[in-house]
Design brief:
By secondary structure, this protein is mainly α. It has one domain. The chain has helices at 2-16, 18-30, 32-38, 42-71, 74-80, 85-115, 123-145, 154-157, 159-168, 180-186, 192-203, 208-228.
Length: 235
């Protein structure tokens, strides 16, 4: 697959990027004490780590990746060849996605061994949540890059999504303790349905609403990328 060849080249650049490595490999570990302070149970810890990996290792890293490759004319050169637009975006996304999935699996195993967490009762919802979350945050990263002029500006343009997802999706403050009106709005954030599906995979619970919200975000993200993604530098 041609996208894999792009991904292999991108992976070499990924391992040379200290910032990307820190955000992907170290930062999620630093969040563990905060998650433990909220709930020492193994399942919430795994779910919280998966959510944090999605917003940092996938979303934030890919915003910087798309912007860097655009400004370096890499995307423009690739587009001149035989690769389709989806193949270029997929290839550029592969390293971050693969590293993120590897982290999720590693965290689940480590936390499982340390806390004796039970296996998911409905693992298919777990899979749907993770895959859907990866798709959503790849699309959001591509859309956000359109409004990011430089790699340095990615810290600013990605901040609203990062803060909204980390603070408003129930990672640290359960939505159940919030006023119903506020909780209803926060359930519409892109990370919230992912976390709801992960919880449903372990403990059961309603899944129709999270599935609908997740599908809506995928549709919205696809439209945003088609409408606003930029292939040419913004110099």
């Amino acid at each position: 697959m041609r996208a894999v060849a792009v991904g292999q080249a991108e992976l070499k650049l990924f391992w040379r990027n200290r910032t990307a490595l820190f955000n992907s490999l170290v930062l999620p570990l630093l969040i563990v004490p905060l998650l433990l302070s909220v709930d020492a149970d193994g399942v919430p810890l795994v779910i919280g780590l998966i959510g944090f990996v999605l917003v940092m290792a996938v979303y934030y890293n890919l915003v910087t990746t798309f912007v860097a490759r655009r400004e370096e004319l890499v995307l423009k050169r690739l587009r001149v060849g035989e690769l389709t637009d989806p193949e270029i975006l997929l290839g550029a996304s592969l390293p971050s996605v693969v590293v993120a999935l590897g982290q999720m699996a590693l965290f689940a195993v480590i936390v499982g061994v340390m806390t004796g967490v039970s296996l998911p009762s409905r693992p298919w919802f777990l899979l749907v949540g993770i895959v859907g979350g990866v798709i959503v945050f790849v699309l959001l990263a591509a859309a956000s890059s359109a409004f990011t002029r430089t790699v340095e500006m990615a810290q600013v343009t990605s901040l609203p999504v990062l803060m909204a997802c980390v603070l408003g999706s129930g990672l640290f403050i359960p939505l159940s303790v919030m006023p119903e009106g506020v909780a209803s709005v926060l359930r519409l954030l892109p990370l919230t349905p992912v976390l709801d599906l992960l919880r449903a995979g372990w403990h059961g619970g309603p899944v129709l609403q999270p599935l609908i919200i997740l599908a809506a975000w995928i549709a919205l993200g696809t439209y945003a990328v088609r409408r606003w993604f930029r292939w040419d530098p913004r110099r």
